[in-house]
Each structure stands twice: as structure tokens, then as C-alpha cells.
Specification:
Layout: E1 9-13, H1 18-29, E2 33-37, H2 41-50, E3 58-61, H3 68-82, E4 87-90, H4 107-133, E5 139-143, H5 156-176, E6 182-188, H6 194-199, H7 211-222, E7 233-236
Parallel strand pairs: 1-2, 1-4, 2-3, 4-5, 5-6, 6-7
Helix pairs in contact: 1-7, 3-4, 4-5
């Protein structure tokens, strides 16, 4: 039986990460041709090895997703291999608690804004340009975060960077509607991953969302079922 993404070309950034592995798995099961992007090629290879027998047609690559010229070159390599990009799922990003603003230096601000805001702006923008130039009625999904809605103690740089990424997605939603390209975000709370459990051993893990829960929403937004949703950020977390 054909899946929802049979013969669709799906690019996934940060594909070696804990969340992305579930995303890759589900898209593979749904018949997608996959473009797996991660700067940490060893982590990416681990992901591919773990999904042996599930992955169909795929390619692996890497790039600094904050540099326009590197993303453009990456898109060109994908075009040479698969012809087009139908779906982009942008999971690449990072987290750092930092210090209070009055104690912190500028380094954490620049790091968070680069990996969360700039990567979103550049990667989503350049892939969207590919879609517009090639008349691809595509889907773009970016991973945001609940702290982007409100600042918190020792999280100013992180929350600001995620808020900036959300504004980028909302703006692109308005810009791309006339091209029949849907762009949305998912906004999870803490995701239940081994690193998060290690960092917060006393937390109530039952209140966290699993990677599969987030992946389910991502695949929905990337599917034709979400054709009427654009420029939105869907919350994925347990209410309390």
C-alpha cells in the first residue's frame, strides 16, 4: 500500500538528532525519498544504520545551514539527485540555559540566535526559493519550542531565538500562500530523550512529550491533510 509520501522528496535537517530519528522513521515508512542533513555525520550514520531495512531511496549530506551559499549548494545537490524538494522538515537547532542577562556575556546570545533563528531564516528561505522557482507546491515544517512564547529565568537568549524563529515562520506563511506553499511550526514542551533525562533526572517524565508524538504532528503538517493550515505553530505538550 502506498504511503502518504510515496515518491515525495523530504529533506530533514538535524537528521541525526533524537527527535529527527522518529521523523525519519515515519517518513521512510510512508514511502518518502529522504534527504538527511546533519553536520555530525557519525550521528547521522547511526540513524541510518538503526533504520536499515526501513529506509528506501535516500541521500546523506551536510552543510552549515546558516550560510546562504552552503544551503544553495546543498539544494543544488538535491536537485541533481532527486530533481526537487517537496517537503522540508527543519529540526536543527540547539538549547542552552545560560546565565541571568546581567551576568551573561554576548556569546550565548549570538550562539542561540545563530543556531535557532539564523538557521531557520536561511534554510527555510533558500528551500522556499527552490520551491517557488520550480513551481513546487510544497510543505515546510520547523521545530519551535514552548519557551518561545514567554521568557524564563536564565533562558533569555534561547527563548528570544525561538520566538524569532516563530516570527520567521509566520511571516513566510503570509509570503508563500500565493505560491501554494504551506509553512508551519510545531511547538513542543520538553521532549523525552536520553539527554534530557540525564540533565533533569528529578523531573516528572510523564509530563514530557515523546519524539513520536512530535513526529506525528510533523507528518500531519507535511501531508495534504494540512492544506488549510499555514503560518501556524501547533503546540505539542501536556497541559497542566
Amino acid at each position: 500500500m502506498a504511503g502518504r509520501f510515496t515518491d515525495k522528496v523530504v529533506m530533514i535537517t538535524g537528521a541525526g538528532g533524537n527527535l529527527a530519528r522518529d521523523v525519519v522513521h515515519q517518513f521512510a515508512q510512508e514511502g518518502a525519498k529522504l534527504v538527511l542533513i546533519d553536520r555530525k555525520q557519525d550521528k547521522l550514520q547511526e540513524c541510518v544504520d538503526a533504520l536499515a531495512g526501513v529506509l528506501n531511496d535516500y541521500m546523506m549530506d551536510k552543510a552549515d545551514l546558516g550560510l546562504v551559499e552552503e544551503v544553495d549548494a546543498l539544494v543544488k545537490r538535491v536537485e541533481n539527485r532527486f530533481g526537487k524538494i517537496d517537503v522540508l522538515v527543519h529540526t536543527a537547532g540547539g538549547f542552552d540555559m545560560g546565565k541571568p542577562v546581567h551576568e551573561a556575556g554576548i556569546d550565548i546570545w549570538e550562539r542561540m540566535m545563530y543556531i535557532n533563528a539564523r538557521l531557520t531564516y536561511v534554510t527555510l528561505g533558500r528551500v522556499a526559493k527552490h520551491m517557488v522557482d520550480n513551481n513546487v507546491e510544497g510543505k515546510i515544517v520547523g521545530v519551535l519550542a514552548r519557551p518561545g512564547l514567554k521568557g524564563g529565568k536564565n533562558m533569555s537568549a534561547y527563548s528570544a531565538s525561538k520566538a524569532a524563529a516563530q516570527r520567521v515562520i509566520e511571516s513566510m506563511g503570509a509570503e508563500l500562500a500565493e505560491h501554494n506553499i504551506n509553512i508551519n511550526g510545531v511547538m513542543p514542551s520538553i521532549i523525552d530523550t536520553p539527554p534530557n533525562r540525564k540533565d533533569m533526572p528529578n523531573a516528572d517524565f510523564s509530563k514530557w512529550v515523546t519524539p513520536k508524538m512530535v513526529a506525528d504532528v510533523i507528518l500531519f503538517l507535511a501531508s495534504d491533510a494540512a492544506i488549510s493550515i499555514n503560518g501556524s505553530s501547533l503546540e505539542v505538550y501536556h497541559k497542566s
